[in-house]
Amino acid sequence: xxxxxxxxxxxxxxxxTLLDRNLAIIDRVRRESGAEIIVALKACAMWSxxxxxxxxxxxxxASSAAEARLVFEEFxxxxxxxxxxxxxxxxxxxxxxxxxxxxxxxxQFERFGQRALINGISCGLxxxxxxxxxxxxLYNPCVAGSRLGIVPEQLPELxxxxxxxxxxxxxxxxxxxxxxALDAVEKHFGxxxxxxxxxxxxxxxxxxxxxxxxxxxxxxxxxxxxxxxxLRLILEPGSAFTWRTGYLVATVEDVxxxxxxxxxxxxxxxACHMPDCLEMPYKPAIVGAxxxxxxxxxxxxxxxxxxxxxxxxxxxxxxDPEPGDRIVFEDMIHYTMVKTTMxxxxxxxxxxxVRRDGRIDTIRTFGYEDFKNRMS
Length: 376
Known about the structure:
Blueprint: E1 11-14, H1 16-33, E2 36-37, E3 39-40, H2 50-55, E4 60-62, H3 65-75, E5 79-82, H4 88-97, E6 98-103, H5 106-118, E7 122-126, E8 162-166, H6 175-189, E9 198-200, H7 214-227, E10 232-235, H8 239-242, E11 246-258, E12 261-266, H9 270-273, H10 276-279, E13 299-302, E14 311-315, E15 326-330, H11 336-339, E16 351-354, E17 360-364, H12 368-375
Helix pairs in contact: 1-7, 3-4, 6-7
């Protein structure tokens, strides 16, 4: 049992014993299904635990040049890389650090694919099968007009040099959703499946969640493999590796009461440190707190930024929070920590001043080291 009072605050905390539990489940799926399972850095780029993740996976997947370089240098092998769009500025670095590259459109493959093929890189296309169980449009890659993946009518034939197909339509989903996604892929793109070498089923396979039917996942993968025996099957979950493995520890600094609303003011921010709570939105669990029942005193958690909406609630406690108390948010290692830094390793804009005499003065640029040093 962690003594949260002994930890510095605020801080993110990963518990290796909880991580071990998840890795054992992932190893079982790899072993019994025959599928490859790779780590999606977009959910957790905490490279200090890459040795553990590498020992219980088949590699890692990147969404940018920075993530691909982090995989290459700290995971110890080339990355499977997919990004919605590539640029000339980054593509040489992506090729240096990758052995698989997936393109979001035929136009991007035509622009960059030959360079990748000449360098011995296996190339794939992301397809959009038109099915996703995700109910929140912000996270739904198959929403009408989606920019993600090639829809069936835009892929009458497979371009020469394409070795694989990739789809990503799930989010914290169950095996029944994967089965429906595979049905959609076979319906719309099945004519290509015996002509390619690999099929990447993306992320969102939350196989480490309590109640997830791991046996069913294994059955689905084995049956699909039996129908397409030449295919390498690849899954790239992000959340599953670090699901419920850690915390964000905060401290109550003040209590504000206004209009019947009780707010515990924290030294962390939802806008800055837990953006999914505002974007999704969702309310995280807090150690020692519960859902308010009728008659319970309700407490909001207030963030440290000056954004008016930087709060989340409500919770009930056995005793009122007071300044100095620790507030420990659960399940804060996947997606939360990466979104406080440089999500996906996407370039941060440079800072420039155009001087009165017309000179362009670049004050600061940001690069790989900024991303790496902030993930640790």
